[in-house]
């Protein structure tokens, strides 16, 4: 027991001491080496602009993410929220939808599975693909040329055949996400305007795009705030302790930027 105490004491260094400072610098250097591994020159060029130990106010974080995007294409702005929830508990497995005021910046291909009359209404509303048995067969044959599936409640027994295919891709229609509805035309219009779904994954994290790098910063902040307000409103009554633990933003292939929770 004495030996263990001595070892623990030796391992503990005062933060302000030279030895403690050297230890801190060594950990930073080690982490930077890990972050650099597997990344290209453009990523490494912008990496020093982000202080990995700092928690930025939301407006600064979003603007910095735009400035540190390493890609030539118009990258997606990504939001990552670690929740203090247990995904294994059904009542804490939160899921919902929110309409982004500034849109998503992405053209989504929507498939509507419905009987002929509803399918026609959905087509007029802007659905990219409509049908029922023909589309079900096409999907069973391997076709997945769409980003979202909307269905009427009446056809869900038939759509259930696609559970294994669509479920693993996160594409299975669900009432909680607004993709199972008798008013498919309205649903198509809403999703085309910027309605998105958020859900807790198996690691208790919510991942969601909230616009493009080319958006005005104020528009991205508006989308960001709208999502965070919706996530806060979805808090289950059984949640204990910290509901939102960590929040960060990044661009596609860009460095992550941590956000100060007091700023959201």
Query: What is the name of the CATH class of the largest domain?
Result: Alpha Beta
The amount of helix comes to 25-40%
What's the number of structural domains?
3
For the biggest β-sheet, the strand order reads 7-1-8-9
Number of helices: 10
Stretches where pLDDT is under 50 for at least 5 consecutive residues are: 4-13
Shape: elongated
Largest sheet: 4 strands, antiparallel
Descriptive overview:
The structure is a single chain. With about 260 residues, this protein is an alpha/beta fold. The protein has three domains: about 15-50; about 50-105 and about 195-264, Ribosomal protein L1/L10, rRNA-binding domain (Ribulose 1,5 Bisphosphate Carboxylase/Oxygenase); about 110-195, 3-Layer(aba) Sandwich (Rossmann fold), CATH 3.40.50. The chain is built from ten helices and nine strands. The chain has helices at about 1-10, 20-35, 40-45, 60-65, 115-125, 135-140, 155-160, 165, 185-195, 215-235; strands spanning about 75-85, 95-100, 110-115, 130, 150, 195-200, 205-210, 245-250, 255-260. The chain is elongated, with a radius of gyration of 23 Å. About 30% of the residues are buried.
Short description:
Helices cover 38% and strands 18% of the residues. The protein has helices spanning 2-11, 18-36, 41-46, 58-67, 116-125, 133-140, 156-159, 163-167, 184-193, 217-233, and strands at residues 76-83, 95-99, 110-113, 129-131, 148-151, 195-199, 205-212, 244-251, 257-258.
């Amino acid at each position: 027991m004495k030996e263990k105490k001595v070892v623990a004491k030796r391992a503990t260094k005062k933060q302000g001491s030279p030895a403690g400072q050297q230890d801190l610098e060594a950990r930073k250097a080690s982490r930077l080496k890990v972050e650099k591994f597997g990344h290209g020159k453009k990523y490494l060029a912008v990496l020093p602009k982000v202080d990995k130990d700092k928690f930025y106010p939301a407006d600064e974080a979003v603007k910095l993410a735009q400035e540190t995007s390493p890609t030539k294409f118009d990258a997606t702005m990504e939001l990552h929220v670690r929740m203090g929830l247990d995904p294994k508990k059904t009542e804490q497995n939160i899921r919902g939808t929110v309409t982004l005021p500034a849109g998503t910046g992405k053209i989504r291909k929507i498939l509507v599975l419905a009987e002929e009359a509803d399918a026609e209404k959905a087509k007029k509303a802007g659905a990219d693909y409509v049908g029922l048995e023909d589309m079900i067969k096409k999907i069973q044959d391997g076709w997945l040329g769409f980003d979202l599936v909307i269905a009427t409640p009446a056809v869900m027994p038939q759509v259930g055949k696609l559970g294994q295919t669509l479920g693993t891709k996160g594409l299975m229609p669900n009432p909680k996400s607004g993709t199972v509805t008798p008013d498919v035309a309205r649903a198509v219009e809403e999703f085309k305007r910027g309605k998105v779904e958020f859900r807790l994954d198996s690691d208790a994290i919510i991942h969601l795009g909230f616009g493009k790098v080319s958006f005005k910063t104020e528009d991205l902040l508006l989308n960001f705030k709208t999502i965070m307000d919706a996530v806060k409103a979805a808090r289950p009554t059984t949640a204990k302790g910290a509901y939102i633990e960590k929040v960060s933003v990044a661009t596609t292939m860009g460095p992550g930027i941590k956000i100060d929770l007091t700023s959201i």
